Amino acid sequence: MWIEQIRRLKIVGLVVVGIVSLLVLRLVWLQLLQGAHYKKNAEQNRTRQISVQAPRGVIYDRNGEILVSSRPSFAVSIVPHEYTNPQEATPLLASITGVAVEEINQLLADSIDFPYTPVRIQRNADDVMIARIQERQYYLPGVVLEAIPVRQYVYEELASHVLGFVGRISQEEYARNKEQGYHPADLVGKDGLEREWEEVLRGTDGIRQSEVNASGEEVRPLGNRPSVTGRGLVLTLDANLQKAAEEALAAQVAASRTIGEPAKGGSVVVLDVNTGGVLVMASNPPFNPNLFAGGISSKAWNELIANPDHPLNNRAIQNAYPPGSVFKIVTAAAALEMNLTTPQEIFDDKGVYVLNGWRFYGWNVKGLGKLNIVDGLSLSSDPVFYELGRRLGADNLAAYALTFGLGKATGIKLAGEVKGIVPYIEWKQANYGEPWYPGETLIAAIGQGYYLATPLQQALLTMAVANGGIVYKPRLVNQVLTPEGSLAVSLPPEVLWTIYLRPEVWDTVRQGLIAVTTRGTGAAAFKDFPQTIAGKSGSAETGRGTTHSWFACYVPAEKPEIAMAVLVEEGGDASVAAVPVTRRVLEAYFGIPNKQLPPAPKTD
């Protein structure tokens, strides 16, 4: 019996030894002979974790019309950690995308601290580019096609200088903002509201995890953290009125050129006198911000910066011009407030004014005859304002100009606003090393000489008259919205400054501005217009034999709603260029059908 048991135990032992031997041999085979193969396979099937770009916030006009949103697109990107063959892959990638090898290398170098974050080499890739990437995927390890949001400016050039554009973050911008989670290849607001409201519009990127094989192809998703869309903005702009203003301005620039004027561009600014809300801020020529959304080409960029009319300049705030006869509002108010004239005083416009033997001519060299100050404003008499300027003196005139907001920034939330120039005696000595001459005061009193103002400042000047001295800070944003579109913050009006003049002074200036359009230089253009317009034209000489065309006004005169300023840069006489644009914009605002304007007489 026991012999049988021993025999069975031996058999079991042999079986166990055999099984163990087989296992040992299998392990030896796996570890020593096939270890490299399985190690490679294990490394090639791995987890990829990459960031997912968040859409920027939507921008609406005051009526809820979408002006800027994001649309789906594809980007050609590199995941640095997986980009294992740059020597061969980078030249191939450059040939497909059109992005230089040096630029790709620089983008990768900038992203060295972000091995798992895609470096977007070419945004807004078209179908041909996508197909070429897919065909050569084996030779492009670490190159992926991402579905990303791309900024879309719905009406292309409309309000381009206000909305701005996005572009790749610069090294300086990244250094300032990297603590806020920015990546060296991110797009950020570069100009306009896109720049000024970057922190609001920017969303929060998400994360996507997936398992990928040796070719970089996704095997299966492993999970994700969704991106969060940026917050939205509701603007004060009225898209329809903005469109009407831009069309009227562009048409007039073209028309002025047909009669031999250079007409380099222009601007229209329309403000809500009760809130400071900017209803229109038009600058001509415009540009298309969509050019920048996917990365602007070198050709398109060079065309923009080489254009002699400077389409990237926002002429409403970034360029300053001689204010011309619109400045006579300041001169009249200052002389009345200082009791240097009265509404009853009669002046004699003989077409020329003589000071110390020097002759200063008016726009009508035959003379306009006997005029009080209201008549002087309505007919834009230069000799009347030469005399008022002599009485005031350069420094008093400058003090009132500063009081009305000239020579200082308005603080509108847009980059690049210039202050313009308000000259005075010491200013000239400091800047030119020359004394101030008496004749320069006369020229200053009619808005010529050293004085410079922006279209926005001219609009605020008429707002001050409309409101009896109360000037609201110009603003472009009414509300900030949550990513879901509900109200987050409402931005109230803010008084910028208050100009304290006697009520009778304001009344006299208002009478003069109403007389301009009822019986003065603007009467022909605004004949039969159903609303009373209080305004002032200006034809400002450039010193180059050309003339900037101005018109500034508020409407309706009895109960003001809007203040506006129109400039046609080197467009010719005010009545020929700026006044017709003004009428077209007012027709659009009040819903009045366009009327064929009569030929305009030459004025100031």
Instruction: State the helicity in percent bands.
Output: 25-40%
Q: What spatial form do the alpha-carbon principal axes imply?
A: elongated
Kindly state the mean pLDDT as a whole number? Answer: 90
Structural class: alpha+beta
Beta-strand content bin: 15-25%
Could you give the count of β-strands?
23
Computed Rg: 35 Å
Largest sheet: 7 strands, mixed
State the end-to-end CA separation. 136 Å
**Low-pLDDT segments:** 40-44
Q: Counting H and I runs of at least 4 residues, what is the number of helices? A: 21
Descriptive keywords:
five-stranded antiparallel sheet, alpha+beta, seven-stranded mixed sheet, 604 residues
Blueprint of the fold:
Elements: H1 2-33, H2 35-44, E1 46-52, E2 59-60, E3 66-78, H3 86-97, H4 101-110, E4 119-122, H5 127-135, E5 143-153, H6 160-163, E6 165-168, H7 171-177, E7 187-191, H8 192-196, H9 198-201, E8 206-212, E9 218-225, E10 232-235, H10 239-258, E11 265-272, E12 278-284, H11 290-293, H12 298-306, H13 328-337, E13 347-349, E14 352-355, E15 358-361, E16 369-371, H14 373-379, H15 382-392, H16 394-403, H17 425-432, H18 438-445, H19 455-466, E17 470-472, E18 477-481, E19 487-490, E20 495-498, H20 503-518, E21 534-541, E22 547-555, E23 562-569, H21 578-590
Parallel strand pairs: 2-10
Antiparallel strand pairs: 1-8, 2-3, 3-4, 3-5, 6-7, 8-9, 10-18, 11-12, 11-23, 13-16, 14-15, 17-20, 18-19, 21-22, 22-23
